[in-house]
Design goal:
With about 200 residues, the chain is α+β, with helices and mostly antiparallel strands. About 25% of the residues lie in helices and about 25% in strands. The chain has helices at about 1-25, 30-35, 40-55, 100-105, and strands at about 60, 65-70, 75, 95, 110-115, 130-135, 145-150, 150-160, 165-170, 185-195. Strands 5-6-10-7-8-9 form a 6-stranded antiparallel sheet, with no helix packed on it. Strands 1-2 form a two-stranded antiparallel sheet. A two-stranded antiparallel sheet has the order 3-4. Strand 7 (about 145-150) and strand 8 form a beta hairpin. The longest helix has 23 residues, at about 1-25. The two termini are about 15 Å apart. The mean pLDDT is about 80.
Length: about 200
């Protein structure tokens, strides 16, 4: 039981570091790993890095800086799957694709946020999901945006009608938001990432 928990924890940590690498296009520093994994001591960070090096997820250069190991590899794309009626399928290597190339258009302007709340559930964005946000994209009506409205942050559909701006939820439990004083749009949501296990 304890071994399974340890392995699950390591997988989670690998996933977090991999997400950092693929979103930012570089490996995190040791201090960033500490923040990312919520580790308070340097020795804890070094211990985790040692495990990651041992399993080949990362390696170190001559100066001790981290280099991507297995996390940099693109994922094999095996073709398509029928989501309607069942049909015979054969596994066939169609291509390889890097998830960051697929999901990120502008690496320097892209960041990742974890979703809390269910106001966008009708758009398929659920609590615990990660959203990829492009702060360099010009927001247009119909986009899902990350916005600061009158001092509070939210994620909603953007609706523009002339000079009027409304932020719309994708869940009938919530009301539309109309800024009273100030609206700042931090970025446009370009993708959603969800882990099932």
């Amino acid at each position: 039981m304890k071994k399974a928990q340890t392995e699950e924890k390591l997988k989670s940590r690998i996933s977090d570091i991999s997400a950092f690498y693929h979103i930012r296009g570089r490996m995190p520093s040791f201090s960033e790993i500490g923040e990312l994994l919520r580790l308070s001591s340097k020795s804890s960070v070094h211990k985790v890095v040692g495990k990651l090096v041992a399993v080949g997820v990362v390696s170190k250069d001559r100066k001790g800086r981290l280099l991507p190991g297995s996390i940099k590899e693109p994922v094999r794309m095996l073709g398509t799957v029928e989501a309607g009626f069942p049909s015979p399928a054969e596994e066939e290597l169609a291509d390889t694709i890097s998830l960051d190339d697929l999901l990120i258009q502008n690496r320097e302007a892209t960041f990742l946020l974890k979703v809390s709340g269910d106001s966008m559930s009708g758009a398929g964005i659920l609590p615990g999901d990660m959203v990829i946000v492009d702060k360099g994209q010009a927001p247009k009506s119909g986009d899902i945006v990350i916005a600061e409205v009158d001092g509070a942050w939210t994620m909603k559909y953007l609706r523009k009608r002339g000079e009027s701006i409304t932020l719309l939820p994708a869940n009938p439990k919530y009301q539309p938001i109309r800024p009273k004083n100030e609206l700042k749009i931090a970025g446009v949501v370009t993708a959603v990432v969800r882990k099932y296990k």
